Amino acid sequence: MSYLTGHWSFDPFLVLAVVVAGWYEIGLWRMARRSGPERTRERRLRSLWFYAGLVVLLLAVESSIDYWAYDYFFVHMIQHLLLMFAAPSLIVAGAPWQPWVEALPGRPRRGVLAGTWSRPRRALGALVLRPWVSIGIFNAVMIFWHLPGPYDLAERNQAIHVWLMLGSFCVAGVLFWLQFIPSPPFRRQMPLLSRAAALLVTNVIMIGLAMALSIFASGSVYSVYAHIPGVTLPPFADQQIGAAILWVCGDFWAVPTMIAIIRQMMAADGSMSGALEAMLHRGNALAGWGGSPVTRPGPLADMQARPPSSPDAEP
Question: Which of 48, 85, 173, 190 has its CA 20 to 30 A from that of 134?
Answer without folding.
Answer: 48
